[in-house]
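FW: tagging you since you asked about this chain on Friday. Here's the raw sequence from the shared folder, copied in full. Didn't touch anything.
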Amino acid sequence: LGRGGVRALSISLGEETVTYLSIDCNNMVPDLRSFLDFNSVEGTKLIVSTTDTHETLATRVAYNPLGRECEGKIDCLMEIADQLKKVVRESIVEMRKVRVRYYRGCLNLPLIGEENMISLVSLMGLSSMAKGLLALSLTPQILIFLI
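HL: got it, structure written out here
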C-alpha cells in the first residue's frame, strides 16, 4: 500500500447507503476485486477504486497489485477482504448527519502549461535526431584521426 492507505467514505440518502472505498495501491488482483464486489458489506453499495500508485514499486516486479502476495490463496485474499470490509463497516458506523453544499464551476488549471509543452515537444524531436546529431558532432574528430 502507498502512504494514502485505505479510506472509506459512506454516504446515506434516504434508504440507500453507498460506500466509496479508496485503496492507495497499484490496482488489485482480479480475485480480490471480485470477492469485494460480490460480497460487499451488508447495507451498503460498495464502490471500490485504487489510486494506481507506483509509489510502492521498489519491488523487483513492474506490476505489484494488492493481493499479489497471496499467490491466489483464497484464505489470504479473504483476510485482506475482511480487513477492507472492517474499514467499510467503521465508515458506516461513524456517519454523521451533515448539511450538504456543493459548488459547480469551471477552473482554468494548466497542468504543464504552453511553454513547458513546447519545450517538451522540442526535446522529444531532438531525441529522435540524437544519433544523427552525435554523428555530425563527431565528424571533425573522426576526420582528424583518419588524416
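FW: The first strand starts at residue 6 and ends at 13.
HL: agreed, and The helical segments are 30-38, 74-93, 114-128, 130-146.
FW: great, closing this out.
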